[in-house]
Amino acid sequence: MRAQRNRKVGHRSVALWVVLGYLLATLIPAWNAARAGQSGASAILVAHLGGCVLALFLATREVRDERGSGFLRVLRDWAPLLAVPLLYTELPALIAGAESRFHDQLVQQWESALFGASPAHATAGRFAWTGLSELLHLGYLSYYLIIYVPPLWLYLRGERRNFEITITALAVAFTVCFVVFVYFPVAGPRYLWSAPPGIPDGPVRRLALYVLAAGSSKGAAFPSSHVAVAVVQSLMMFRHHRGAALVISIASLLLALGAVYGGFHYGIDVLAGAATGVVVAAGVDFSARTSARESAALASGVPQPVAASDRGS
Predict the structure, then answer these.
(1) Which of 308, 307, 288 is nearest to 296 (CA)?
(2) Half-sphere exposure of 99 (CA within 13 A, CB side)
(3) Nearest-CA neighbor of 59 among 91, 31, 23?
(4) Residues 245, 152: Cα–Cα separation, whole Å
(5) What crossing angle do the helices spanning 27-35 and 41-64 adopt, rounded to 10°?
(6) What is the pLDDT of residues 75-109, one digit of tens each?
(7) What average pLDDT does range 14-26 have in this prediction?
(8) C-beta of residue 272 within 8 angstroms of C-beta of residue 223
(9) Residue 220 backbone phi and psi in degrees, to 5
(10) How far apart are CA 186 and CA 219, in angstroms?
(11) 313 domain residue, yes or no
(12) Closest-CA residue to 175 (of 137, 133, 228)
């Protein structure tokens, strides 16, 4: 019976448990930052503790009461993504609390070994075309739409299962990237170098620079969470809707190129982000397909292997 109950737990619970795991993994840096008197760190610590309680409540509430109230159901569904901007904003304080040193020098060595001259420094001057620059910067800004629009589209279409799987993949991708940011921070070329030589100016580039100045977190360059999340969205959407996946994939490619062209990320950040996205999407897809096969077998009455821990229940 316990095995059957466990199989009923949807991917929404998995996403919430992933968020809870991240909050617990970064609780000590949050505590250290608060003790050191970092600006806003006390509020971050309180938010972490509150987030742990809320994530645990929502995850376990779903197991006990799958239907739940309308408000709780929506909150369960969207809490992992709604938490992302807050978790991103607190990264500098967590990096300080973890006493992590920046690893740009090491990453620049990897960049040099792989590319020679850094693409983040050389690409824009080599292709100094205003139209291309504006297109790639627009692609870079599409990141914010890539995060939320595909899940919202699935949600409004009533595709609950596809939505849950997508949210799980996004939660895992963000968590992997954010943990690396805290314990292996890389500032990135935007913080260390001037603008790429010869890069054309334009309204879209200025908007991108404004958005980054207003909300970027130093230390969140490697791997590129922009690219990791965009790749995850593209690959997960290929499971559900090929046409939509093609549109997201084109936007993702422009985003990745724009991240380097604009001098926002090292080239190796983008490659690491893409690899992270592929691994996460493949892992979640494999898990979802395995779960679907088990559920189909249970529904058809095919006997399933009983785990040793369930034999005594």
Answers:
(1) 288
(2) 5
(3) 23
(4) 14
(5) 150
(6) 889 999 999 999 999 999 999 999 999 999 999 99
(7) 93
(8) yes
(9) -105, 45
(10) 5
(11) no
(12) 228
- The residue assigned the tokens 């190129």 is 257
311 in any annotated domain:
no
* Eight-class DSSP state of 241: -
In this predicted structure, the answer to whether residue 140 has a pLDDT above a threshold of 60 is: yes
Q: 32-46, 139-153, 190-204 — which is least confidently predicted?
A: 32-46
Confidence of residue 8 (pLDDT cuts 50, 70, 90): very low
Number of domains the chain contains: 1
Task: Describe the crossing of helices 242-261 and 130-141 by its angle, rounded to 10 degrees.
Answer: 120
The Cα 280–Cα 277 span in angstroms is: 5
Boundaries of domain holding 175: 2-303
* Residues 6 or more apart whose Cβ sits within 8 Å of residue 178: 22, 26, 87, 88, 91, 220, 225
Rounded CA-CA distance 227/20 in Å is 23
Count the alpha carbons within 13 Å of 2 in the hemisphere toward its beta carbon.
8
The answer to whether residue 308 is domain-embedded is: no
Q: Where are the beta strands (DSSP E) in 144-267?
A: none
Give CA–CA dist 19/84, Å, rounded.
Answer: 9
Mean pLDDT is lowest, of 143-147, 201-205, 301-305, for 301-305
Judge whether 238 lies within some domain.
yes
Cα 301 from chain centroid? 38
> 220: which DSSP letter?
B
Nearest CA to 261 out of 204, 217, 211 is that of 204
Indicate the SS3 state at residue 99: coil
**Confidence at 305, pLDDT banded by 50, 70, 90:** low
